[in-house]
Write a structure and sequence with these properties.
The chain is built from 21 helices and four strands. The radius of gyration is 24 Å and the shape is globular.
Length: about 575
Amino acid sequence: MRRRFELALNWSRPALTVGDGLILLALTTLLYIGARLALRTPAAITGPAISLSPTALPWYALMSVGRMTAAYLLSLLFTLTYGYSSARSRTAEKILSPMLDVLQSVPILSFLPVVLLSLTAVLPQGVAVELSSIILIVTSQAWNMAFSFFQSLLTLPVEMREASAIFRLNPWLRFKTMELPFATLGLIWNSMMSWAGGWFFLMAAETFTVGSRDFRLPGLGSYLQTAANSGDLRSVLLGIGTLVLIIVLMDQCVWRAILAWADKFKVEMVGSDEAPESWFYNALSRSWFLEQFGLRLWHPLTERVDAAMGDLFKTPVAPVERTADERPSMALILVGVVAVAVVIYGGLRAGAMLITLPIGQWGRIGEGLFATLLRVTLSLIIAAAWTIPVGVWIGTNRRLSAMLQPIVQIVASVPATALFPVILVMLINVAGGLNLAAVLLMLMGTQWYVLFNVIAGASAIPQDLGYTTDLLQVKGWERWRTLILPALFPYLITGMITAGGGAWNASIVAEYVNFGGKIHSTLGVGALIAEATATGNYTLLLGATLTLILAVIMINRLFWRRLYQVAEDKYRME
């Protein structure tokens, strides 16, 4: 597989389209409505007391795992729906692709107060806080899974598409037997990263304050936050120890078992010498109860689902390419007109709100955006520099992967926000200390997106291609240039996009820190968002958030999306 990196990009394509503008207006309308509803919430809210007793940890851990599970299931449902719809229809892609760009660029911690306060205004407080917590975790899990699944569907080998057309598979059978299995490995590794990202934002999801309103939920994140604020080192260590135990159990009983099961979906002509193994998967595969469950319940259920879906999708899929643009129905046009009218009205009201923001504040937003962009760029460069070689090393060595996989998950899952006060104390008196600490926190929260995607890409390299390069004695840089880097390219782009979004989100907690009763902040758009949230300045919050979203969309469209096109056209595994 000898290919050169030729970035033949279509630079004439506009960075922003009419659809992007409508989606931005819709998001602006939602933020405006949320801000208006937030004004109706009670002036003072106090959450339940968090016990630091070790006996409370099992219950807190169970609550947190339950929220993570609910968020992951919602993220998986979103991933499969979005990825399939946008990959199969160009019309759907024109709507869903810019929507994902916008949603992925929304700063999680600036969107949460609007969601939380608006839900509190219309729902009971307990229900609103639980829903907001799950929504926050979803926004830290869904995007990298969606990007990974979409990338896998776009790079599906042409011969597999042609085979589906020859056998006249309907859309359901094609999805079940071809598309989903091909995307499984990347989806599993990104699911691991999603869980790690969920743990990263768990403290923010379970403990959140807006002015005098204190929203908190019983859970492992709130336990760690309370222990850190009270300076109780013993409780902090107990909380982190419980988190590590959960991660190890998840690795042994879930992720490693799923990887061993999914190895059969790897696209290769020669079987691997060292297939992944799992004691838990081996034990389950020999279970009499599981065998009976499969024979009596699972297989009859899947047959009924196949029959029902076969009746629903009787028409075979298009041979190779995605379906062309279709003329929308009159009902859809009418719904679109009404939605556009509502969006334009909300956008005008939000614009009237933004007009009241002083010019000086807009200047601060511009300066902060540039400063944060520099930190994000630096963190991505550092992340790529070490994750590419290490990820390839782990992904191509089964034994090494078995040893390091749980360690990587543990390190990636420990909330960096819990360790940030320690880092801040070490660097605060150094020249540029908070700037260095901010870059370090961004790096701690985003480098794992790149690493897990690189591991997934390296693991998916067919064994026969490795044998071929060995036979031809292709070694060193030539092997990287002709085999490894082209095979990694789609996965690397996915990892860098999601890492970039994570870095922008992490800027909110990295550039504005309340530690020891004192505010430490540096120049950045994340600091402005955090400041506006803490003071309840919703006009500044709306202006800074929309500016950040627009900047991320422009970066994605001018750079990352065009590299995505290169991955689809040149680096498909054929």
